[in-house]
């Protein structure tokens, strides 16, 4: 077992675990916590997908439901999030299996963001996402 405590000195613990791995001293690893941290890193990648989708979907809703306010900032945010999503998915192709769930989770929050930023009632927006992932992701797609 390692000498640095996971609970009281996380940073020191991470450095020690990395050193033990590099040195091949596998029997000295804090395996339970190493496994938990690796799983946590994966959850972080999935959450980044949801966060980026949320921003993208909220802006697509604003674009569709307030066409008179469309501007450079909204357009560039949509383009930016699409490009960041492409890079994120290319670096994490296994996330493709999580797309449907991520879209549902992201859309629920996107409605709230769009309602807050447009001052439109939440009920203005469809209860389920009106776009498939491929459509929202497509740089040629602009709703409305």
Structure write-up:
The protein has five helices and no strands. It is 65% helix and 0% strand. It is mainly α and 144 residues long. The protein has a domain at 44-137. Helix 2 runs antiparallel to helix 3 and helix 2 packs across helix 4 (99-118). The chain has helices at residues 10-22, 31-65, 72-91, 99-118, 133-137.
Radius of gyration: 20 Å
> What is the helical fraction, as a range of percent?
55-70%
- Secondary-structure-derived class: mainly alpha
Number of strands: 0
The biggest sheet, with number of strands, parallel, antiparallel or mixed sense and barrel status, is: none
Runs in which pLDDT lies below 50 for 5 or more consecutive residues are none
- The number of helical runs is 5
Order of helices and strands: HHHHH
């Amino acid at each position: 077992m390692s000498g640095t405590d996971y609970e009281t000195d996380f940073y020191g613990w991470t450095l020690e675990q990395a050193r033990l791995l590099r040195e091949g001293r596998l029997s000295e690893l804090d395996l339970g916590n190493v496994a938990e941290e690796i799983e946590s890193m994966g959850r972080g990648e999935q959450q980044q997908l949801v966060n980026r989708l949320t921003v993208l979907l909220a802006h697509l809703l604003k674009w569709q439901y307030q066409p008179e306010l469309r501007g450079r900032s909204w357009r560039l945010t949509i383009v930016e999030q699409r490009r960041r999503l492409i890079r994120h998915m290319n670096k994490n192709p296994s996330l493709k299996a999580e797309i449907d769930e991520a879209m549902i989770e992201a859309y629920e929050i996107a409605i709230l963001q769009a309602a807050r930023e447009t001052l439109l009632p939440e009920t203005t927006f469809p209860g389920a996402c009106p776009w498939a992932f491929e459509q929202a992701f497509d740089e040629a797609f602009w709703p409305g």
